[in-house]
Design brief:
By secondary structure, the protein is mainly α. Helix content is 78%, strand content 0%. The protein has a domain of 53 residues. Keywords: Coiled coil.
Length: 82
């Protein structure tokens, strides 16, 4: 094998090593982004659950309030509505 052929193979091997390192670094970065996005998605799901719960409580409170007869809303002072 000639010196030129061996040198070309070594350069090619180094180029492949560099390419593999760059791809490995890119994969690590992408994995980190996936972890961050997954964490944000979990946080959003928790917030969504809390908001749904609060909305249900508000709807329930409104429904309960809506069925109170008008005379029950009068105060003891002067018969004015609250």
């Amino acid at each position: 094998m000639s010196l030129t052929t061996q040198s070309n193979r070594q350069c090619s091997l180094r180029d492949k090593e560099v390419e593999c390192r760059e791809k490995a670094a890119e994969i690590r970065d992408l994995k980190e982004k996936v972890v961050r996005v997954s964490s944000l998605a979990r946080q959003l799901e928790l917030q969504k659950g809390e908001l749904i719960h609060q909305l249900k409580l508000q709807v329930s409170a409104f429904d309960n309030y809506a069925f109170i007869p008008c005379f029950a809303l009068k105060t003891n002072l002067g018969g004015e509505y609250q």
